[in-house]
Amino acid sequence: MELRHLRYFRVVAEELHFRRAAERLHIAQPPLSSQIRQLEEELGVQLLTRSTRRVELTPAGEVYLDRVREILDAVDAAGEQAHRVAEGMQGALTIGCVGSATYSLFPRLVRALRDELPGVDVSVRGEMLAPDQVTALEAGRIDLALLRPPVTSARVVVEPVRHDRLIALVPDSHRLAGRGEVDLADLRDDDFVMHAGHGRSALNGLVTGLCADAGFVPRIRHEVTETSTLVTLVAAGLGVSVVPEPTSALDIAGVRYLPLRPEAGIDLSAAWIPEPASPVVERALTVLRRIAAE
Q1: How many CB atoms lie within 10 A of CB 155?
Q2: Tens digits of per-residue pLDDT, 220-272?
Q3: Within 10 Å of residue 181's Cβ, how many Cβ atoms?
C-alpha cells in the first residue's frame, strides 16, 4: 500500500464518481479503477459498491475514509512542518545576552523575533558574561549570544553588531555629578564597582587599561556579574564605574550617567556555532542585523 492509494480512495469517496475523480487527479479512469481494486484486495474489504448508475461507500468504506483523511492530513502537516523548520520559520531559539544589551537592543530583537517568526519558541538568558555565553554555546544551552569580545573559542563565529560608547557612572551625590562630562583621571581617587575580572569580563579589562592610560590603577572594591547589580551598588554610593552607554536605559534612581573623556567604546557582537547549521539562528541573525542597522 502506498500513499497514492489512500489519496486516490479519498477523492473517489468524495466524488462518488470515477470519471470526476479521475479528472481531479489528472489521471485516466481505468488506472484509477484498477488502483482502488488493488487497495480493496490488499485490505480484503470492499470499500465501494459500484453499479452502472452510482458509486457508494460501504459501511467499512465510510469508516476507512475517516481514518484516511486523518492520515493524509497528518502527512501533509508533517511535510509543511518540515519545510518550516528547514526554512527557520519553526523551532526553538535560546539567546544569551550581556547585561548592557539587555536594556537596549535585546528587547527590540525579542519583540521582532516574536512578530516575524511566530512559529519559533524564543527563550532568553540575560545578564551573562561573555565566557559564560561561550561555554553555553559550546554546550548547546544557548543558540545565539550577544556578548563583548574577545572570544577565543575556535568553534564560535563572532560578528560585530554595533559599537557602544563608554560613559561614567557616578552616584547623584558625587562631587562630579553636576558636570556635563568627566575626565577618567578625575576618578582616580574613587572606589570602583566593576564587572568580574580575571578574564570573565571584557569590560573589566578595557576599563582597567583605560585607567592605566589615564595614569592610575583603579581601586576596585566590588566586582559583580550583573549590570543591574553594578548600577544598584553605584546608586548606593559604594563607588563609581564605567559602563557602555546603553546601560543608561536602566532606570535606577540615585545615579548619573556622564559622557567620558577621553572618548572610548566597546563592541557588541553576535556569536554562534555554525556547525551544524541552524536555519532558526540564520533567520534570527537576519532580524538582528536589520535592527542593529536601524
Answers
A1: 12
A2: 999 998 888 999 999 999 999 999 999 998 889 999 999 999 999 999 999 99
A3: 12
Tell which wins on pLDDT, 6 or 84.
6
Cα angle value 211/215/220 (rounded, 5°): 40
User: Which grid cell sits at 44?
Assistant: 480484503
Say which residue the cell 492530513 belongs to: 73
What value does the CA radius of gyration of the chain take, rounded to a whole number of Å?
32
pLDDT at 200 over 90: no
Relative to beta strand 144-147, strand 265-272 is antiparallel
Supply the pLDDT for residue 293.
Answer: 86
User: What is the Cα–Cα distance from 100 to 246, expressed in whole angstroms?
Assistant: 6
Query: What's the burial of 203, exposed, middle or buried (CB within 10 Å: 0-12/13-18/19+)?
Result: buried
Q: Give the Cα separation of 278 and 209 in Å (integer).
A: 37
pLDDT band at 51 (very low <50, low <70, confident <90, very high): confident
Kindly give the pairing relationship between strand 120-125 and strand 182-183: unpaired
Contact at 8 Å (CB) between 25 and 11?
yes
Model pLDDT, residue 250:
84
Q: Based on the number of CB atoms within 10 Å of its own CB, is 209 exposed (0-12), middle (13-18) or buried (19 or more)?
A: exposed
Sign of CA dihedral 67, 73, 75, 81: negative
